[in-house]
Specification:
Helices cover 18% and strands 30% of the residues. The chain is of the alpha+beta class and 426 residues long.
Length: 426
């Protein structure tokens, strides 16, 4: 009991230190979701992610030790394929031990195809299914950051589930566990209905760091164990940054809380990755960060993860003609014009802040006035986004606001790929 209260004290200290001065109203309570089965081998917190052009990683947790095996096929109840992976677990502050985290890569898989699968082998009682992304346009991405585990989060996820998309992108701050590891388990169960059906591609935020001086010196322990992304396949040496392709779209998932200075591993990896992109076959280039480089909200101004990372990497993205940059962190929505070095530039990326998934901290409601010319739309509300790459040259973006639990379109724009703009060729 003493250890538990010691942990609570540490958490309270950290949270107090991180409290911002602006008002964040409109919160809803955190959910607590228990396992749906007492069977120690029952798959829990199932989610999937892309691995290369034709494979999928299946991740799930069990209480007991079992073979990390997935059987799969294109017909329900019939499993032509089988793959076995790895199992791991982790401890946190001596009072929490995770379940058995299973990680299996299956494939090769056909594009635009529904697969049925079981975690743990054919004897498992629960069947799941997912659909692979298509190998032609249009490509549809759902985007939402800073989710948490509140009733607002549940509302956002329900809205996303009603829109037929191919891939979900999360720009950091997943569970908001804030050191309380059982919250990670609730988060996994909350997102399972959606994350088991479509690949979730995530990057890390400040709430994933979870480093406690002296007591737990390793950062990102839960994140790295629970959310294994395809960093090896993209040439990265860290799960904190990587890239992936979906037909015609190359997505950079950058780490705001990993070293990003010139000469760092992440910086060198990004340089190499950008040089490998062929815009003739991959006309769309998208980047995802957590701490925004452009932000007219009063929240999170002047943080080094925003200021220093922007100074270090903005020119790399600009010269590569990145089309879009998504960010989280600020609990509100904001869309900018094409920007470079704080000014409108027709060859710069469109910056979109979408850290409004629904976490307990609430909304960042105060914006700077007057509105800078480069900021085209901003609103403090919970919601999510739809990004549709219609073809090689045009894409449609819209932001859906959670309006009394109804998803309402509040902002939208058509975009032209910079690869199609002859005046922006390098």
């Amino acid at each position: 009991m003493v250890k538990i209260w010691g942990l609570v004290a540490i958490v309270l200290i950290v949270l107090v230190q991180n409290v911002s001065s602006y008002d964040r109203p409109g919160t809803r309570k955190n959910l607590v979701i228990h396992p749906s089965s007492d069977d120690p081998l029952s798959p829990d917190q199932v989610h999937i992610s892309l691995v290369g052009p034709d494979k999928m990683r299946i991740s799930w947790i069990t209480k007991g030790s079992a073979m990390p095996t997935v059987v799969y096929g294109t017909t329900s109840g019939k499993y032509e394929g089988s793959a076995t992976g790895t199992t791991s677990s982790y401890h946190f502050l001596l009072i929490y031990c995770s379940g058995r985290i299973n990680d299996v890569v299956i494939g090769p898989l056909k594009p635009n195809t529904v697969y049925y699968y079981k975690c743990g082998g054919p004897s498992s009682t629960q069947e799941f299914s997912f659909k692979t992304p298509p190998s032609q346009f249009p490509i549809k991405f759902a985007v939402a950051g800073d989710l948490g585990t509140t009733e607002w989060t549940k509302s956002t996820l329900e809205h996303i589930s009603k829109w037929e998309h191919d891939v979900f992108i999360l720009p950091g701050d997943l569970s908001y566990a804030n050191f309380l590891q059982p919250v990670w388990d609730t988060f996994g169960r909350l997102v399972q209905p959606l994350a088991s059906q479509r690949p979730w591609m995530v990057t890390n935020g400040n709430h994933e760091v979870e480093r406690v001086p002296v007591l737990h010196r390793q950062s990102f322990t839960a994140y790295n164990h629970r959310w294994h992304m395809p960093y090896e396949e993209s040439g990265s040496t860290s799960n904190l940054y990587y890239s992936f392709n979906v037909f015609g779209v190359h997505v950079l998932m950058l780490g705001s809380y990993a070293d990003f200075a010139p000469g760092s591993d992440q910086y060198q990896w990004l340089e190499k990755d950008l040089k490998s992109v062929d815009r003739k076959t991959t006309p769309w280039l998208v980047a995802v960060i957590h701490a925004p480089w452009y932000n007219t909200n009063e929240a999170h101004q002047g943080e080094k993860e925003s200021v220093d990372m922007k100074e270090s990497m903005e020119t790399l993205l600009y010269k590569a003609r990145v089309d879009l940059v998504f960010a989280g962190h600020v609990h509100a929505y904001e869309r900018f014009n094409r920007v470079y070095q704080d000014k409108f530039d027709k060859c710069g990326p469109v910056y979109i802040n979408i850290g409004d998934g629904g976490n307990l901290e609430g909304l960042a409601t105060v914006y700077k006035k007057p509105t800078p010319e480069i900021s085209l739309f901003r609103e403090a509300n919970f919601g999510h986004g739809h990004l549709v790459m219609a073809n090689a040259t045009h894409a449609h973006w819209e932001w859906q606001r959670n309006d009394d639990d109804v998803s309402v379109e509040k902002d939208s724009v058509w975009l032209t790929s910079l690869s199609a703009d002859s005046s922006c060729q390098i």
